[in-house]
Write a structure and sequence with these properties.
Chain lengths: ~180, ~180, ~375, ~100
């Protein structure tokens, strides 16, 4: 059993009961604060430092060779909790040689930023590492249409990111060497 | 009609009019506001009579304290406008008092010699700084006022002080929450 | 009929009055800025630094500095108040609702008629105080008129016809009555001290108070307790934190001006700061030696128009420091609870002021005893 | 020079007194009755000050001082009584405190 201990407080001295010394101390504190540095940012001109793993706006990225990574598997569309992503799958045109073996590509890719909750599931689920939540955080528009990011906008926002795997290149090389798998 | 006359009539109208509106206004807050107008114009009349100290005292005591107290009580008790009809007895007594006031004013106008030019020369105030003795001369100086209070009117002053003390004790007793052991 | 000389005098007075209203209003406007800036500095922020006038902003160095200090912010604020839509809520008592801001502002501006703010040296060496009206009962006038300011708050609270403003109005009236007593009582020993026999001071004139502090200790040093009580009562009378019961944002939304917006709110705002400006000026006059240089020292400036200008500047500097002190206190002390305010006023300050008065009565009597 | 005579002030004082009297008689709200009483006292004050000024004698002014003291006291006590009454009867109207009538 916990024992309750009643602490006897020391009675206040006369100078403490006037509260004046305490007030003076407080005044000193506030005054010294006047000469300390500012902790605020002048926002639109100065931007805060964004950490690496920040979850900003979801974007589509290209690999270092400038190729579209998304294969429109639609996993992100399925996993997206608020149903913000809509993908219209399409085929990769035959003419693009460097994308051999990639069968599909998004014909249209929309992320509705009015619905997006920045949960990052799409990034997590993407098998191609094509969708990333990057450091952009301020998004605004004058109409609802402007708030729906189309494919071009998504690639523009995403840019290219270094790729560790070159999955499709490896597959092509393997096939070229006669190794199907 | 010179400036002083103009001011006198202006403030006289304001004070009596304010008083009248106070008496007939339905809502207590409006009444208090009209009362303040009346009191401040009376202060202005005191200025016309060259007793500046009393004028300021009038504003300080009446407008600054008494009427704030009134407003405080009106708000505290949340007194709404007066509903219902004025009773017949009230009407009759009101009429009677109106009549008597009217008659008295007429008599006053008749016999007090208003407009008598011989009465209208206000004697100039002598600026006597040092006052001694019992004959208190009217002056604008505060010193004379204090001298009067603390020599000739020493006893009334003490009694007034005692009255204030008694009133304070009385008010505290009246407004204190009654404890059960005191009631028993 | 009308005396032309008198008319001229009246015109001159009106002109001076307008000038002073301009000065006080400007100071009130810039106190708002000071409040925002100082609070920002004390909280590690920058404060208003965006507003800029078209041309002035491009002056190489000064323009940027003025912009950074937010010097144009009061202008922008004023314009905003002017051009905002006037909204009168449907449930208010329209007449008193519109009257209240005026009633709040007028007393604050009227008190400055008896404020001396410097002295003018004539050619023959005589000096005259610079003020609109040298009343013998100056301090009483200030107390009387400034006590009328409470009606603005009470009326605003009552006419808004909603509960938070109403509570603000009630609180304000009770607080005013409570602290006026302590304020008056704290000033009595001052005048007792100043107008002791043989000093030539007569009555309750503010000029005499200032003159008595020439080349002698400031009254702050002579009567620190009176100064303290007066300062606390001043905070309470101007509704500043820690006594801003009538408009405590945390428990009464906005207090008495919850239902106000636009220009009418602006008037309340300016009235509050005008009260602070006038209150600081009074404290400077009574306790900080007015336009005199330093305690025990004679004024180092010459007795010419330059000297009087420096004197006015010195007076302003003291006043501005006090305004800063008001702001400083605001960001240091938390707000009292309402019962604590009443408790402090009636059971602490009032007895203290009485004891202080009795002590100085005894002291002055003892000092004034003719040598046996 | 001036055409305002002491009699003007006297009539004014009487009018103020009369108006106050009317209020005391006519109003049922006790708060207003108290206010009207103040107005009556004010009327007397005006008369006293004007007498004092006319005869160049300070006694009248000093009396006004005492009247003001008494008036302030009266208001304080009166309002305290009123509040006490309101607590008991929930009304500030004079007809509601006629204990003997019913």
């Amino acid at each position: 059993m916990a024992k309750t201990v009643v602490l006897q407080r020391k009675p206040l001295s006369l100078s403490e009961r006037t509260y004046l010394p305490q007030i003076v101390t407080g005044l000193k504190t506030t005054f010294s604060n006047m000469f300390k540095g500012k902790v605020t940012l002048q926002y639109p001109e100065e931007k805060p430092n964004i950490p690496k793993n920040y979850r900003g706006i979801p974007t589509l990225v290209k690999d270092p060779n400038g190729r579209e990574k998304c294969v429109s598997c639609q996993l992100c569309e399925f996993v997206c909790p608020p149903k913000a992503i809509r993908i219209t799958p399409g085929a990769v045109p035959e003419s693009e040689d460097d994308r051999e073996h990639v069968e599909k590509a998004p014909q249209e890719f929309e992320i509705n930023m009015l619905r997006c909750i920045y949960c990052g599931y799409c990034q997590e689920v993407c098998p191609e590492e094509a969708i990333y939540l990057q450091d952009e955080y301020s998004l605004s528009g004058y109409s609802r249409d402007e708030m729906i990011n189309k494919k071009e906008k998504l690639y523009e926002l995403g840019g290219t990111l270094p790729d560790q795997h070159y999955k499709w290149d490896k597959k092509k090389n393997a096939e070229d060497e006669g190794n199907d798998h | 009609m010179n400036t002083v006359d103009l001011l006198f009539y202006f403030f006289a109208t304001l004070s009596v009019g304010g008083g009248l509106l106070m008496v007939i206004s339905r809502h207590p807050v409006s009444a208090a506001m009209f009362m303040i107008i009346s009191l401040v114009s009376v202060a202005a009349l005191f200025v016309l009579l060259e007793s500046f100290f009393l004028a300021i005292l009038q504003v300080l005591v009446y407008a600054g304290a008494v009427m704030v107290l009134f407003l405080f009580i009106i708000m505290l008790l949340d007194v709404g406008p007066e509903g219902g009809k004025v009773s017949r007895v009230k009407m009759l007594s009101g009429l009677a008092s109106c009549l008597s006031v009217g008659i008295l004013v007429i008599l006053l106008l008749q016999f007090s010699g208003i407009g008598d030019a011989s009465l209208s020369n206000w004697k100039a105030i002598q600026s006597t700084e040092s006052v001694t003795g019992d004959s208190l001369v009217f002056s604008t100086s505060l010193k004379n006022f204090g001298y009067g209070l603390f020599t000739k009117y020493m006893l009334p002053l003490q009694v007034a002080g005692f009255l204030l003390l008694a009133a304070m004790v009385g008010v505290i007793v009246l407004s204190k929450k009654s404890t059960p052991d005191l009631d028993a | 009929m009308f005396d032309f000389e008198m008319l001229f005098m009246i015109g001159l007075k009106v002109l001076f009055a307008l000038l002073m209203i301009g000065a006080v209003m400007t100071m009130a406007g810039y106190s708002v800025l000071a409040e925002r800036k100082v609070s920002a500095w004390m909280q590690g922020r920058v404060g208003p630094n965006r507003t800029v006038l078209p041309l002035v902003g491009y002056v190489p160095f000064a323009g940027k500095f003025l912009k950074g200090m937010g010097m144009f912010q009061p202008l922008a604020d004023g314009l905003k108040f002017l051009f905002k839509e006037e909204i009168i809520p449907g449930h208010v008592n329209k007449f008193y609702y519109n009257l209240a801001p005026i009633v709040a502002l007028v007393p604050a501006l009227t008190t400055m008629t008896v404020l001396p703010f410097g002295e003018f040296f004539a050619d023959n060496g005589e000096s005259f105080p610079l003020m609109l009206a040298n009343l013998e009962v100056g301090i009483l006038f200030i107390l009387a008129v400034s006590s009328l300011g409470v009606y603005g708050i009470v009326l605003a609270g009552w006419s808004s016809n909603s509960k938070y403003p109403f509570l603000g109005g009630i609180r304000s009236s009770a607080q005013m009555i409570s602290y006026e007593l302590a304020m008056g009582l704290s000033l009595l020993p001052i005048f007792l001290w100043v107008s002791e026999p043989g000093t030539g001071a007569m009555g309750l004139s503010l000029v005499d108070i200032v003159d008595s502090q020439k080349q002698s200790p400031w009254l702050l040093l002579v009567q620190p307790l009176s100064a303290l009580i007066f300062l606390i009562a001043l905070f309470a009378e101007t509704n500043r934190l820690p006594f801003d019961m009538p408009e405590s944002e945390t428990d009464l939304v906005g207090g008495f001006h919850t239902e106000y917006g636009g220009f009418k709110f602006g008037i309340f705002f300016v009235a509050e700061y005008a009260h602070i400006v006038v209150g600081s000026a009074i404290f400077t006059i009574v306790f900080l030696g007015g336009w005199h240089f330093m305690p025990w020292m004679s004024d180092p400036w010459p007795a010419t128009w330059i000297g009087s200008l420096i004197g006015v500047g010195w007076f302003l500097a003291k006043t501005i420091f006090l305004i800063f002190f008001f702001i400083w206190i605001r960001w240091t002390l938390p707000r009292f609870r309402y019962d604590q305010v009443m408790n402090l006023g009636w059971t602490k300050l009032l007895p203290l002021a009485l004891i202080n008065l009795i002590f100085y009565v005894c002291l002055v009597t003892w000092l004034d005893q003719p040598p046996a | 020079m001036e055409s305002v005579t002491p009699q003007h002030f006297l009539v004014l004082a009487f009018l103020l007194f009369g108006v106050g009297f009317l209020g005391v008689v006519l109003r049922r709200n006790l708060l207003l009755v108290l206010m009207s009483l103040e107005l009556m006292l004010n009327g007397v004050n005006v008369a006293l000050v004007s007498f004092s000024r006319t005869s160049l004698n300070l006694d009248g002014s000093l009396f006004v001082f005492f009247i003001m003291t008494v008036a302030a006291t009266e208001v304080a006590v009166g309002l305290a009584l009123l509040v006490a009454l309101f607590k008991k009867r929930q009304s500030v109207f004079s007809e509601d405190i006629s204990l003997l009538k019913n």
